[in-house]
Amino acid sequence: MNQDDAKKRIARIEAMQTGFDNKLASLDKDLLAELLNSADKVLANPKTLSRILGSFEEQYHIPVLQQFGADLLTIKSLNDAYFEGAIGDTMGGHLVNQALFENVQLSVERLMVDQFGIAADGEIVKNGLFDLFSKDTTVRREIQQFAYGQKASGIGVEKFKKNLRRFIEGVPGNPDAPAKGIYKRHYDTVAFDTYQQADRVAQQAFAGGLNMTAFLYLGGTIAGTRLFCRVRDGKVFLKSEIDVMGTAQDKYGGYTDKSTGKFAGKNPGYVAFRDAGGFSCRHHWSALSDRAAMRRRSDLQKSPNGVLTIRA
């Protein structure tokens, strides 16, 4: 359980996220094509959208939703495999044996079901997050409202097609149009950062059950990376340090107002383990074995009872 193992897990998750984002972009293009083909009928009678959208969702959207659920299950499996590396090692003064690992594995599975509403066998939990999301009709309502508004304005078919393209696909940088496509907007609202949050939930739950207290903050940096994440990227932190991130008690930097724990991108109700660097953050927490943590951070030591502490 080291940085290489963590990077492999994160790379798989990032690839799934990219693949899912591409599917959403394709959904927007496919939806636009369907609506443009029937633009004259839709403008004349927006009620026809009920049939068009129902067929589209069945043929195009449901498979994407199914992939979304499969990806969440894969993230759980990736964490299962990651933490199997702890078996036989001593964490926080406690030996991690097969029985302990399997007990923790079951508790993480239950937590993932509670958090995301999808069981390990793919069964959707009634009234869970995934169930409610799959039944959400926001996209359909928004398109119907848009079409009725366009009809009421009295515009012609060609102008309607132009407006429809802007509404469905979005126009980045144009204040008079949505910045993103309609499905991307929808998923950002109801399921934003879900891939990262699923990984963080699993990491925290596994680590807690296996008495692991050291975590590596990984995700790399690009031109737009926030200072909060730049300061922490690639560094090892103990749970006690992570617990106070986003507060005045945090000894690390990257804040716009340290006295209140404010930093760029900090979301309401911020919790460091769940939210990492805040809104739209793609960084991950990866639990490290005690030995790997001490190799990466020279001021860590084991107390007499085997717990990692910071050397005074």
Describe the structure.
By secondary structure, the chain is mainly α. It has two domains: 3-191, no CATH class; 213-310, no CATH class. Helices cover 57% and strands 7% of the residues. It has 13 helices and seven strands. The strands form three sheets. The chain has a three-stranded antiparallel β-sheet with strand order 4-3-5. A two-stranded antiparallel sheet has the order 1-2. A two-stranded antiparallel sheet has the order 6-7. A hairpin with a 5-residue loop joins strand 6 (300-302) and strand 7. The protein is elongated and about 80 Å long. The mean pLDDT is 91.
Mean pLDDT: 91
Derived from helix and strand composition plus strand pairing, the structural class reads: mainly alpha
How many individual domains?
2
User: Can you give the helix content as a percent range?
Assistant: 55-70%
Number of helices: 13
Strand portion: 5-15%
Biggest beta sheet attributes: 3 strands, antiparallel
Topology:
Elements: H1 3-37, H2 39-44, H3 49-83, E1 90-91, E2 94-95, H4 98-116, H5 129-134, H6 138-153, H7 157-169, H8 182-191, H9 194-209, E3 214-218, H10 227-232, E4 236-238, H11 239-242, H12 272-275, E5 284-288, H13 290-296, E6 300-302, E7 308-310
Helix pairs in contact: 1-3, 1-7, 3-4, 3-9, 4-9, 6-7
